[in-house]
Design a protein that fits this description.
With 244 residues, the protein is of the alpha/beta class. It contains ten helices and eight strands. It has a six-stranded parallel sheet, sandwiched between helices.
């Protein structure tokens, strides 16, 4: 194992408890879209989150088109993406909270100065920035090291595409093997693994021990090297990867 020099953190439900808020904000928009296309199915926020967690809204729209056999024009797609982003940011700016124990761990890492730190998210850059600002985490990440699969790439994409992790490594100037990623979803874990980056699977944002165990199994099956249920375990998890 190469020496680890950089830590790459997913944002939604890894650094910031934002997924539930975001999916609540976009469920109504998704239902408006389905109604427009005469599709009777409807989603609640939790249902949308359960089915599409880890994807940005562009990815959700692509999945909905495939699942329900309808087509959006490029202009319609961009319009819905823009509407969803505005709704979600407004919600996050009011209600977002940090994942339990995360700020304390980031503060410790910042003081130690042993690793560089970056955010690597599927979500739009403005949403990520609003999230980490609201929970007082922006100070830990240089603005140029906050990356978005929806915004930072020449062609927008979403995890599990590894493109955003490969882009982040290139911009930072590190090899994949010198990084560790922290991810809470199957798509995020696959994105990092496909980029050649070791993954700490974080399940602390899932409600209840049964769901945490279920998601831990999913993350393990998709390449996470170690699992973390609380941010107080991060140092131990990182040491376990570094010892390999």
């Amino acid at each position: 194992m190469a020496k680890i020099t950089y830590l790459l953190f997913d944002c939604d439900n890894t650094l910031v408890l934002s997924e539930e808020l975001a999916f609540e904000a976009c469920a109504d928009l998704s239902n408006e879209l389905l109604a427009k296309h005469n599709i009777k199915d409807r989603y609640t926020g939790p249902q949308l989150m359960n089915e599409f967690v880890g994807q940005n809204f562009r990815g959700v729209l692509m999945s909905l088109q495939k699942k329900f056999s309808f087509t959006l024009s490029d202009d319609e797609l961009e319009s819905y993406v823009g509407q969803e982003l505005a709704r979600v940011i407004a919600t996050l700016e009011k209600k977002a909270q940090p994942c339990v124990g995360c700020n304390e761990e980031l503060e410790k890492l910042a003081k130690e100065k042993k690793y560089g730190m970056a955010v690597v998210s599927s979500s739009a850059l403005s949403r990520v920035q609003a999230s980490i600002k609201k929970v007082d985490q922006a100070k830990y990440f240089p603005p140029e090291h906050v990356f978005s699969a929806a915004t930072s790439l020449p062609v927008p994409t979403t995890k599990p595409d590894p493109a955003i992790y490969l882009h982040a490594c290139k911009v930072i100037g590190v090899r994949s093997q010198e990084c560790v990623a922290v991810e809470d979803s199957k798509s995020g874990t696959l994105s990092a693994v496909r980029a050649g980056i070791p993954v700490v699977g974080y399940v602390g944002s899932y409600e209840g021990s049964e769901k945490q165990a279920e998601m831990g199994k999913v993350l393990r099956e998709n390449g996470a090297m170690v699992l973390m249920t609380h941010w107080s375990q991060f140092e131990e998890c990182l040491a376990e990867i570094e010892a390999l």
